Amino acid sequence: YFLFVTFASHRRNISTKVEIMTRYNDIISVPFHWSKQVIVISILTTLLIIGAIIALEYVPIEESERWLKVPLQILLALTLIITIGFVPTQLNADIEQVTLKKVFGNIEIPLHDIREVRRLSKSDLNKSIRIFGSGGMLGYFGFFYSKKIGLYTMYATEEDNMILIRTDRKSYIFSCTKPDEFVEYITNSLR
User: Fold this and answer.
1) Is the separation of the CB atoms in 120 and 146 below 8 Å?
2) For 16-68, how does the pLDDT look when each residue is reduced to its tens digit (9 = 90+)?
3) Residues 6+ apart with CB under 8 A from 54
4) What strands, in cross-sheet order, belong to the sheet with 106-110?
C-alpha cells in the first residue's frame, strides 16, 4: 500500500509538472521529485522481491534445505522494508540547519558546519562508484565515491537537480525540485 501511494503521488507530480517549494518564517521546504527511471526501477525491483517471497512458498525444496525458506523470505522482506526506510521525502532548511526527511528518520546538518553548497551537474558525478546503497530502487542513496568530490553520502530520487553540501567531515548530495533556490537560501543564511 505504501509503495502504491508513494508512486501515485509522485506520478501526479511528473504528469502535471508541479514543483512545490514552501517558504515560511525563514524556512524553506522542498519535496523530492521521482524520475521516471527511478519509478520503473523501483516498481520492477519491488515486484521481483515480492515475487521471490511468494515463489519460495511454491518452489519444491528438498527436506534438508527446507529450513532455508523462511529465513530467506524474511531477509527479502527486510531488504524491502529497510530500503523503504531510506527513501528521502523532503528537504528543509532554516536559519539553523538543513534537514533531510526520510521515511524512517532525519539527517540534520547544522548551518555552521557547512563549508560549501552548490548546484551539481550530471558530469560532476560521472564515474561515481557506489560503495554501499541503492542505485535506483526507490532512489539513489548510500555511500558513493568520485574523483571530483571524494567520498559522499547521496539521497536522490532523480539524476538531475542535484546539490552538494560539504562540511568538514562529510559531503552530501541531495536532489530536490528547486535546487537553485535551495542553494541560494543556504548561501544567504550562511552570511
Assistant:
1) no
2) 333 455 555 678 888 888 999 999 999 999 999 999 999 988 888 787 777 88
3) none
4) 22-24, 27-31, 88-93, 97-102, 106-110
Helices within 17-159 (DSSP H only): 36-58, 69-85
CB 179 within 8 A of CB 19: no
Query: What's the length of the chain?
Result: 191
CB atoms within 10 A of CB 160: 12
Per-run averaged pLDDT (10 residues), the chain, 191 residues: 45 42 71 92 95 90 81 94 93 93 94 94 87 92 92 93 94 92 89 76
Q: Which amino acid is at 108?
A: E
Radius of gyration of the chain (CA): 19
Asked whether the beta carbons of 21 and 30 are under 8 A apart, the reply is: yes
CB 180 within 8 A of CB 117: no
